[in-house]
Specification:
Layout lengths: L1 H11 L2 H13 L23 E5 L2 E4 L4 E4 L2 H4 L8 H11 L10 H13 L5 E5 L2 H16 L3 E5 L29 H4 L1 E4 L5 H9 L3 E6 L2 E2 L5 E2 L2 H13 L3 E5 L12 H5 L5 E5 L9 E5 L1 H4 L21 H15 L2 H24 L4 E6 L2 E6 L9 H6 L3 H13 L2 E2 L5 E2 L6 H20 L4
Parallel strand pairs: 3-15, 5-6, 5-7, 7-10, 10-11
Antiparallel strand pairs: 1-2, 2-3, 4-12, 8-9, 11-12, 13-14, 14-16
Bound molecules: pyridoxal-5'-phosphate.
């Protein structure tokens, strides 16, 4: 049986990970520090790999297994792992110390750089995570507009703060994780992307609506592209009604070009949240946008909107690694178009194969981002709703298991390409999918 064989193979090649996992589950709830890092494998009776090191496109686990990695540190490592230049600037700075709790020149330089690259960014405030950035952006919006409600996209992931963790993952219809206020009490309304009903919802609530927040491509939610017409209308209608438009570019920022995705779309929001790539693989979050809105967070402003503390905001090593990353990306125009084309090509080839074989699998995303969905039945051209409704989590876990056994690591099915991925890597992926997809989608699981 496929599942049993795959599990046995997986376990026999990972005795050290298996042993350490026994301790992990005793000292960490569920054995992890981020829910998705089980890769779903515990549901199949397995355990996640425990990684020791990374270099270029590869991760190596504590048992010595080496994986071609498409998860890339939650999409942050666009240059690949352990880039020598980034390591060099971090090492160089370490000799000066690594945390001062003061201002450094690097936060000024990184902010200036983000402003220089992006017409929609006039000023920047740094924090330590994308979760904080989105939380602060909505706070700014509420204070600036003096309105109560925030509208967010169904499946839009903006981190697990009490502010925006609604209608994510398996939670639909305004449902919130246990321990959180109900959406209506938290002032959250939700809408579906690429669906005109969103505009009715916005219109109906416009007098009390402070902001609409969404990713211009639902990355965290599963790689769902947002139609350009939908985004254009969203910009027009929010502007007319005095509602702030917030783009969450924590994933999409610097992912497809050496600036924010909004520049490709030619749609400028009022506020933008950033993270991941702009920290060069170290913790970061940032809120950028129109000066008159961001400036409201200044302590010199008598109507100050509180952003921070933040013991580690503007953390020097993140600023330095981020700056160096953006420098290297600026020199990587050709590499951007190369990995964007490779991503488009691989998605198309995968979908062509899934369709021909009538497999209930789908590759979505945009350019260098490739996310795989497995559904419990085959549907021709499934809609956004159908992909979510028929999502087969156990089979997605089985996919991860089969990929790990074939020395490929990914999450959300796959993830995103980095600058060190080659055409040969794409061929390797395609071959592996041709080998395993039938078993993954058809073999009995329990
Ligand atoms: C689009 C988006 N926004 C916000 C966040 C939260 O960022 P962080 O994990 O840095 O808190 C994420 C994290 O995956 C994300 O994908």
């Amino acid at each position: 049986m496929f599942v049993k064989e795959e599990l046995e193979l997986y376990q026999s090649n990972r005795p050290k990970s298996k042993k350490l996992w026994e301790t992990a589950i005793k000292v960490l709830p569920g054995g992890i520090s981020h829910n998705i890092r089980t890769f779903g494998l515990t549901a199949l009776g397995g355990f996640p790999v425990i990684i020791k090191s990374a270099m270029g496109p590869y991760l190596t686990d504590i048992d010595g297994n080496k994986y071609l990695d498409f998860w890339n540190g939650h999409f942050a490592m666009i240059l690949g792992h352990n880039h020598p230049k980034i390591q060099e600037v971090i090492r160089e700075h370490l000799s000066y110390g690594w945390h001062f709790g003061t201002n450094t020149k690097y936060q000024i330089e990184l902010a200036a750089r983000l402003i220089d690259d992006n017409p929609g960014i006039e000023k920047v405030r740094f924090c330590t995570s994308g979760t904080e950035a989105t939380m602060y952006a909505t706070r700014l919006a509420r204070a600036y507009t003096k309105r109560r409600l925030v509208a967010k996209a169904v499946m839009g992931w903006h981190g697990a703060s009490d502010t925006l963790c609604y209608d994510v993952g398996g939670l639909v219809d305004g449902k919130a994780p246990l321990g959180q206020l109900k959406a209506e009490d938290a002032g959250i309304i939700t809408f579906e992307i690429n669906n005109d009903k969103a505009f009715d919802i916005i219109k109906k609530n416009s007098a009390d609506l402070a902001a609409v927040i969404l990713e211009p491509l639902l990355g965290g939610g599963g790689g769902f592209p947002v139609d350009i017409d939908f985004l254009t209308r969203l910009r027009e209608e929010t502007e007319k009604a005095g509602i702030l438009l917030i783009f969450d570019e924590v994933i999409t920022g610097y992912r497809f070009r050496d600036s924010l995705f909004q520049n490709e779309l030619k749609i400028l929001p009022d506020l933008t949240t950033m993270g991941k790539i702009i920290g060069g693989g170290l913790p970061i979050g940032a809120i950028g946008g129109k000066n008159e809105i961001i400036e409201r967070s200044s302590p010199q402003n008598e109507n100050q909107v509180l952003i921070g503390g933040g013991t580690f905001s503007g953390y020097p090593l993140s600023m330095i690694a981020g700056l160096e990353t953006l420098n290297l990306l600026r020199e990587s125009q050709q590499n951007y178009s190369r990995i964007n084309d490779e991503g488009d090509n691989l998605r198309n080839l995968l979908n062509q194969f899934f369709n021909e074989e009538k497999l209930p699998m789908l590759a979505i995303g945009h350019k260098s981002m490739i996310m795989l969905h497995i559904m419990s039945k085959w549907i021709e051209n499934p809609s956004f709703k159908e992909i979510i409704e028929y999502k087969d989590k156990n089979r997605e876990a089985l996919l991860q298991l089969a990929l790990f056994n074939r020395k490929i690591s990914g999450l959300h099915g796959l993830g995103a390409l980095s600058m060190v991925n080659t055409h040969e890597h794409m061929s390797q992926i395609l071959e592996v999918f041709k080998e395993i997809s039938h078993s993954v989608s058809n073999s009995p699981i329990k």
